[in-house]
Specification:
5 helices
């Protein structure tokens, strides 16, 4: 685990910190790559997080959301303490069995789902997977199928493609 202090900055509405080059190089070495999204974990001001390092506009950034740092958009310009390391854990989210079954039963929706980008598929799967009650899951699976068939909005979108 590497530790550093950084000034919280913002791009658009997204608070972030730059990770020092020396630490980035170590993370790249352990991860075995220096491109794409790199899963990391650690602490911000002592609070644990799981996040992804992302390169944007030629710079690697660790985005600091409100789960990691309460009221982070209001703390721009403050110095924060960050611990960071490569996180090798599998982050694959399994599709809820009710969504899988509904897609199997509706070939048209399945075909549209299969044609979505992996990130859009993951967005649908993640949304349903994190729901708690059976009623909420059933209601949202129905909405997801309707969305795929162009009948309604879902996850803040009008159309799946």
């Amino acid at each position: 685990m590497q530790k550093f202090n950084a000034i919280l900055e913002i791009i658009g509405v997204n608070p972030f910190v730059f990770v020092p080059i020396k630490i980035l190089d170590e993370i790249f070495s352990v991860a075995g790559k220096d491109k794409g999204k790199i899963p990391v974990c650690g602490t911000v001001n002592g609070r644990k997080y799981t996040q992804t390092l992302i390169k944007y506009s030629g710079e690697w950034r660790l985005y600091i959301n409100t789960t990691m740092l309460r009221d982070s958009p209001k703390k721009i310009g403050e110095s924060i303490e960050v611990e960071i390391e490569f996180d090798p854990k599998d982050r694959t989210i399994q599709s809820h069995f009710k969504l899988t079954k509904a897609l199997e039963e509706n070939k048209e929706a399945q075909k549209i789902f299969d044609g979505l980008s992996p990130s859009k598929q993951k967005e649908i799967v993640r949304y349903i997977s994190f729901l708690k009650s059976d009623e909420s899951i059933a209601r949202n699976v129905e909405k997801a199928i309707g969305f795929l068939l162009g009948k309604n909005r879902f996850i803040g979108r009008d159309k799946p493609l």
